[in-house]
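The protein record passed on below.

***
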Amino acid sequence: MSSNPTTRRVGFVSLGCPKATVDSEHILTQLRAEGYAISPSYDEADLVVINTCGFIDDAVEESLDAIGEALNENGKVIVTGCLGAKGDIVESKYPNVLAVTGPHATHEVMDAIHAHLPPEHDPFIDLVPPQGIRLTPKHYAYLKISEGCNHRCTFCIIPDLRGDLVSRPVDEVLTEAERLVESGVKELLVISQDTSAYGVDRKYKTEFWNGMPVKTRMTEMCEALSTLGVWVRLHYVYPYPHVDEVIPMMAENRILPYLDIPFQHASPRILKAMKRPASSENTLQRIQSWRAACPELTLRSTFIVGFPGETEEDFTELLDFLDEAQLDRVGCFAYSAVEGAKANELPKPVDEDAKQERLQRFMEKQAAISAQRLQRKIGTEQIVLVDEVSEAGAVARSTADAPDIDGLVYLEGVTGLSIGDFVNVHIDQTDDYDMWASMIED
């Protein structure tokens, strides 16, 4: 897609989580729809937009560094995203930015761009594909179903940054999914802040998609997505009772047998201090019942160690939970005192050295569990989705692997594949997180 020399050019830097990536895609789509070109460098850009993250201290620093770099290299910068919602942090450090907005603010960002770089639209040149502009590879895409969150977990400031839960109408979600599939997407990654709560703010209102009534609710949305003939992967699912309703779909291979559930801890006392939703559920019993119904189920989760007030006994209870739950994919973070989080006011903060020591013990235990669970797949046949190809072979993912956060499947020496291919493979070798496989000839 070419542009003439007078076309307005916007540079774009996108930081943060998949939800921020979707926000960036919406802005980029609007930019192209209005005739702007997207510049690959600071030098060629008329101005730069930076979509920031502001959740933990490291993310804040990364965002501030990116803003500073853009100002030094270009000089004209518009800031959006979660860091923009955290008071005047950006303006106080960089008073010469052109504008600052919060997250999920396409209209506000476009208003700022219009003010500083009015568009020159040529409808014969500046065409936007139906699926919009995306930052992910062509064969997979994030599908954001809602914005914000109704929970008030004490370690989290997402509701302050993104507001309360606002679910998208299900017909709008499904129409976007359909367009993505028509454009060549092979995997839809469903994201939100709380996927299980989808539609509660809309009282599960029934909408119509392709003439079919569909409730604005997770189960019915998954039912509809399962008809599109692509991988559907669920992220950020809280273990409410109705999660049980999607397990049969996974057992029947209608959606991927994969649940991303952020448990965060196992000690009831710490979960209560965190104000986690569904913290009273019998988690181990639920996991056992899910696996009984769907033996191929992959469970991914995240945890926090060193939360204020966490004792050695609490941490030991967490390690015991790992032994019993046998989760497949796990991430863990040492508690970070995010500015504005209620947890910072709790008594008995954990010493930083103790946090890091517990984090290391946690990851060592989980690495052994992950390695053992992967070893069970040696000798099995798996369907994988190809992400990369080169002269040395191909890199793919199995149904158990979400992009950028889980493991990979290496097909060494395999040629003749294309990105986005589904292929059948034999698992030959594994380590803590990845697998090596050979092709199964038809």
